[in-house]
Amino acid sequence: MVNLDNLFKKISSMGLTVKKVSQDTGISSGNISDWKNGRSFPSALKLIDLADYLDCSTDFLLGRTETEKVINLPNEIADEIVSRFNEEEEEFISEKDIIKHPIKKAAKIYSVNADDYNKVIRIYNRVVEKYGKEQIFISKKEYVELFEFQDGIMERYVINPLIKSENGFYTLSQKDYNMFLEIYKLYVESFI
């Protein structure tokens, strides 16, 4: 089900009115009112226009994530990062290689194979090394607590059957995953 709460929270947090959004985007205030009351939903094109106007992602507006912006690097920057980490001793860790996203969107449980947990810790350690403990908004203890260890085979299949570890796995809630992403952004920046 589509949840547009973030759309209206974002409009409000920016000090905007429905009338102002309507004037600036060309989307009728009647349409916006219908969305707010659940009578209809925005088309993909209108959602894209709103995301551009509000400077956030469409996934955020749809309530699929609490992270407002997506890290979307141009190919040239991504290639530069890859070439630099190939020069460095430390191997670059891709979020997509270690975090398994939920199969069922409603579950919103992310997971990490136990075999990859040391990479999760290396990400934090690099950020602290680069920026210093004083600059990081979360302690190592709090960071470690984002990840909850699970050892049951049944839970593995319920949460995500793609988990391949026989040594157990760690789970993250949507909120904890968003916190991990904030540290991961700093990790990526540390290679630039």
Question: Summed up, what is this model?
Answer:
By secondary structure, this protein is α+β, with helices and mostly antiparallel strands. 53% of the residues lie in helices and 8% in strands. A hairpin with an 8-residue loop joins strand 1 and strand 2.
How would you describe what is shown here?
- The chain is α+β, with helices and mostly antiparallel strands and 192 residues long.
- It has helices at 5-13, 18-25, 29-36, 44-54, 58-61, 75-87, 95-98, 117-131, 140-145, 153-159, 174-189, and strands at residues 99-100, 109-113, 148-150, 169-173.
- A hairpin with an 8-residue loop joins β1 and β2.
- The longest helix is centred in the last third of the chain and has 16 residues, at 174-189.
- The radius of gyration is 20 Å and the shape is globular.
- It starts with a helix and ends with a helix.
Task: Identify low-pLDDT runs.
Answer: none
Outline type: globular
Instruction: Give the number of domains.
Output: 2
Strand order, sheet with most strands: 1-2-4-3
Radius of gyration in whole Å, from Cα?
Answer: 20 Å
Strand content: 5-15%
Q: Number of helical segments?
A: 11
Biggest beta sheet summary: 4 strands, antiparallel
> Which structural category do the helix and sheet elements fall into?
alpha+beta
How far apart are the termini? 39 Å
Order of SSEs: HHHHHHHEEHHEHEH
DSSP summary, beta strand count: 4
